Amino acid sequence: MAFIYNLFKRSSTFTLSILAATFFFERGFDMIGDTIFDRLNEGKLWKHIKQQYEEQ
C-alpha cells in the first residue's frame, strides 16, 4: 500500500499515470472493437472479397 501512496503522492505522477493508462486502454479497446467488427462482417468487407475482383 505504501508503494501506491508514494507513487501517487505528487499530482504530476498521478496525472502521468492516468494519461498512460488512458492511452493503453484506448488502444486495447480499439483493437477489440475492430476484431469484433471484422468477425461480425466476415465476407462483407473489401479485404475479404477483393480477390474476387482483382485481375490476374
TrEMBL record:
It comes from the Eukaryota. InterPro entries: QCR9, QCR9_sf. One of its GO terms (cellular component) is mitochondrial inner membrane. Its main location: mitochondrion. It is found in: Mitochondrion inner membrane. Pfam families: UCR_UQCRX_QCR9 (PF05365). GO terms for biological process: mitochondrial electron transport, ubiquinol to cytochrome c. It is a single-pass membrane protein. The keyword Hydrolase does not apply. Coiled coil: none annotated. The keyword Transcription regulation does not apply. Component of the ubiquinol-cytochrome c oxidoreductase (cytochrome b-c1 complex, complex III, CIII), a multisubunit enzyme composed of 3 respiratory subunits cytochrome b, cytochrome c1 and Rieske protein, 2 core protein subunits, and additional low-molecular weight protein subunits. Belongs to the UQCR10/QCR9 family. Component of the ubiquinol-cytochrome c oxidoreductase, a multisubunit transmembrane complex that is part of the mitochondrial electron transport chain which drives oxidative phosphorylation. The complex plays an important role in the uptake of multiple carbon sources present in different host niches. This is Complex III subunit 9. It comes from Bombus impatiens (Bumblebee). The gene is LOC100743756.
